[in-house]
Amino acid sequence: MPRDASDLLHGTLDVLVLKTLSWGAMHGYAIAEWIERRGDGELVIVDAALYKALHRLEESGSVTSEWGLSDNNRRAKYYSLTTRGRARLRSESETWKRYAIAVGRIIESS
Amino acid sequence: MPPSGVRRAFRLPVSSGQIARDLEDEVAFHVAMRVQALERTGLSHEDAIAEAQRKFGDVQDLRDYCVAIEVPHMQRALFRERMHSAWQDLRFALRQCRRSPSFAFIASLTLALGVGATTAIFSVVDGVILKPLPFNHPEQLVQLWGIDANGRHLHFADPTFDHLLAENHTLSAAAEYNTSDMSFSANGTASRVTAAGVSKEFFRVLDVRPELGRAFAPEDQEKGAPLVVVISHALWIRLFGGSPSVIGTTVKSGQTPITIIGVLPAGVEFPSGADAWYPREPFGENTSYTAHNWNVIARVRDGLTTQAATRDVSMVLRRLHAAVGEATWTFDGTAIPLRDQIIGSVKVLLLLILGASGVLLLIACANVANLLIARMAVRESEIAVRVAIGAGRARIAQQLLIETSLLAAVGCLGGIAIAWAGMRTLLVLRPALIPRVGELSLDWRVLAFAVALSAATAVALALVAAWRGTAGDLRAALSQSQRTQGGGGASYRVRGSLVVVQLAMTVVLLIGAGLLARSFVGLMRIDPGFRTHGMVVAATIFDEPRDSDYVGRRAVYYQQLAERALAIPGVTGVGMSDAPPFSNGSSNGTFLMLDNAGIKPVPSELEALFNDKSRTGYATYRTATGGYFKAMGIPLLAGRVFEATDRAGAPEVAVINAALAHKQWPNGDAIGKVIEFGNIDGDLTPITIVGIVGDTREEDLAADPLPAVYVDFDQRPGNSDQMYVIMAAAREGSTIAAARAAFPQVRADVPIRFLTVEDIIGRSVDSQRFMLLLVGVFGAVALLLATLGVYSVISYLVAQRGREISIRVALGASAPQIVGLVLRQGAVLSIVGAVIGGVAALAATRVLKKLLYQVSTTDPVAFVSVVVVLCGVALVASYLPARRAARFEPMDVLRGG
Does residue B727 contact residue B574 with C-beta atoms inside 8 Å? Predict the structure, then answer.
């Protein structure tokens, strides 16, 4: 059963977006697709929340955006990681891993 | 992949609308992509759209969210961007200044001169005209005047004033006052103080209260009451070091004790120059309707206008005249706002000078504009490049505005320094012409004026530069600059007209200065009829109780003083008079011609005698000693002057001047004639004319000598406590020093002030000298600036026409021909400028009419000489670049282009 993105913690979506962009500049739709594919359909994100995250990240300087042309020649907004975004991805994925391990331990011990 | 390398900063969203539109595009793209994907899975188009929108979620919420976080972000970014570009421009401007420091220096110095001159004059206009008088509700204060049968202003007589006080309905308070010099002995030293006798309500009219002590109480204002005085803050500091114990101190005026009861706050100086105020009532009233001894100041009631007061005063005084008839000479009256009374005719003069300084500022601006245009021409290619890579006009204008603001800011600072120096000079000169000069200060209003003026200058200059800088055709500018590094012909025309305007304005200022100078020289050349150099005057006040022995004590004192004066080495003559030199005697009036000296007329006969017009004459009256004429250098034309035998009791004698002899006894038989001049002092003793002396011009060099009668100090000593000791001595300074040491040895309690006749005469031409100085300085600066203007525009012309000139040289033109070619341009500019300026001056100099003596406002000498000087200077300024042009090596210019 796919879970709604509202279940995901705020910071989780941000980390997912940063991680996705670490592969290169992408437009919003490509990011959504990429997360869904990598998450094997387990993670379904409401698109509006994704865009909120993108704009939030842009405002804080973790990502930057430019208008460009998509593969099918349509005008699309491309996002890419900044140096600051890369640093944030490194530190937050560490936090996230430790968090996941901690949560896993608690669940298995019960 | 997006195209890389284009920076985010270039497409910054500029509004929240833009943010929302961008987001809509982004969402539309997303939804379209999703629809495509869903269609591939077999959904119908409609279902795919519905599913995509459902999956997207709340678009409205997203939009609000994004606008909320991005608008402040965008504003911060925009602000940063603007500051950054301004900072860049500032650095660029500083670099430009460093690259051409002489331009920056000359331009800001020029602006400083213009701003400084205008600011200094504005500070005077502000202090004198704009600032309210330092009293509460100054608009309610009026000066009252009586008006005589001929419409002239009259002072008030006591009964007239009392009547007005009782009958008016518009004044809340009114007071009489007059000023005189009085001696003031405190702490063992005697000083001369300007004191005002004032009536009861004086301080209530001004609405001032002492800062220390009290004002006059009713018991101080009764006839015969002991004298009390309120002193000014300045006098308190000067004589008493600001000590509070001054209240209750008794000082002496001559032998009369006066008690100090109060000190007025600083800045209260009314009447002008007054340092002490005493009640007038203890001295009693004069019941004559024609003893016009008093100035009157009044306060108009709340809510009433000065016009209403004028109508009221006029009506009251006309009724009075109807009631008492011939006894009063006051037919009518008026109330003049105190401010108008004080500022009077100076207002026009000051505005005139402000106008002149404004013209100077305009000339300065024209010069800087000219320099800027020259630089713009050189920078045309730079600007063309900047426009080509995408800088808009606004961006270029911002760049130029920052450059001119930088110049103006430096100019403003320099201007404030110049204004400050100018004002210090004014305070030192203290021209009598300018009332309230002591109140001048460089306050925030003046500083704000300077800053506003500089800002306006910066904007105007930036506009001129931007107009010239971005007006041209890009390609033309780029290709042309390849060859000549100069602007086009249009630029020369603009600069040429600026120079013509400059020259014209300079001509106006110089002609004004020329007229004033010629008038001043004329005035100074007038022979006043007495010696003006090497003349020292000691002004004394013999202030003692007027008992029966007063005249005797006074005679002894001045006899001893004369002996001391004669003993000073270098003093060649000593004389005395009851009025200072260069004044119209102590009084004037009508005298009577008698048949012989044997019979003293009795008062009852006088009226009949005075009605016989063939027996009366009019003259000024002066008491003098025999030595006066020699000391003053007034020549004896016939008869004799006073001698030692003309002592009290001997037959009374008089000396008259040539003007009176000529007017009254045209047959040349004045000597031996007998007159009676009791009109002055009530002494009806007949006086025999024994001598005729040369005419003297008094008070005003430009006025004709008045008929004068001199009487002998020993015979008709008069009652005046003021005497002037005149010493003829080549070295004025050492004589004053010696007299200052010697005179107090006779009596230390008589205050003495030393002057020179040159000072006294100098003061009479104060306003002319002051105007001449200002307009002269302005004219000289304007000429300098205009010369720079001509020089730079001709240099520019030579640079611009370098190729043409080179070709001419190559074709065989000689150096003089080239010089002539360039000079012709300078000549055209200066002649056009001179003609326009001359015509403008014809209109402008009319305002100087009142200040000119025996010089017409269209004086050809001034006009022609200014035009000649201007054209000469302009030709010299053009000659330098012309010579440079003549030395052109044709191949250098042609190749190097």
Answer: yes
Q: Is residue B765 domain-shared with residue B656, that is, in the same domain?
A: no
* Cross-chain CB nearest to B66 (options A28, A55, A70): A55
Burial class (CB in 10 A: 0-12, 13-18, 19+), B391: middle
Same domain, B396 and B266: no
Tell me: do B82 and B16 sit in the same domain.
yes
Taking the CA of residue B29 and the nearest CA in chain A, the distance in Å comes to: 7
Q: Structural domain of residue B20, as residue ranges? A: 8-87
User: Which residue among B6, B37, B69 sits closest to A55, beta carbon to beta carbon?
Assistant: B69
- pTM comes to 0.66
Among B57, B69, B70, select the one facing A48 at the smallest CB separation: B57
Within 10 Å of residue B860's Cβ, how many Cβ atoms? 8
Task: Please tell me the total count of domains within chain B.
Answer: 5
Q: Inter-chain contact A66–B2, Cβ cutoff 8 Å?
A: yes
Q: Which residues of chain B have pLDDT under 70?
A: 1-14, 345, 377-378, 380, 390-393, 430-440, 468-491, 607, 890-897
Token pair for B252: 């002496």
The predicted-structure confidence for B55-81, as pLDDT tens digits, reads as follows: 888 888 888 888 888 888 778 878 888
Backbone angles phi, psi at B728, to 5 degrees: -90, 120
SS3 A104: helix
Query: What is the CB neighbour count within 10 angstroms for residue B75?
Result: 11
Together in a domain, B372 and B476:
yes
Nearest CA in chain A to B58: A48
Q: How far is CA B296 from the centre of its chain?
A: 27
A–B interface: beta-carbon pairs under 8 A: 73
**pLDDT at A4 > cutoff 50:** no
The whole-chain average pLDDT of chain A stands at 83
Q: Which residues contact B872 (CB under 8 A, 6 or more apart)?
A: none
Which residues of chain A does B57 touch, with a Cβ-Cβ cutoff of 8 Å?
46-49
User: Which residues 34-93 on chain A approach chain B with CB closer than 8 angstroms?
Assistant: 46-49, 51-52, 55-56, 59, 64-70, 74-78
d(C-alpha A31, C-alpha B5), whole Å: 22
**And the tokens for B568?**
């000073």
pLDDT in tens, B605-649: 776 777 777 888 888 899 999 999 999 999 999 999 999 888 888
Q: ipTM of this model?
A: 0.88
Q: Flag if B73 and A59 touch (Cβ within 8 Å).
A: yes
Residue-range domain boundaries for chain A: 3-109
pLDDT per position as a tens digit, A77-91: 999 999 999 999 998
The residue type found at B888 is F
Same domain (yes/no): B519, B590: no
Q: Does domain A3-109 have CATH number 1.10.10.10?
A: yes
- Verify that B306 and B169 share a domain, yes or no: yes
Residues B398 and B262 both lie in one domain: no
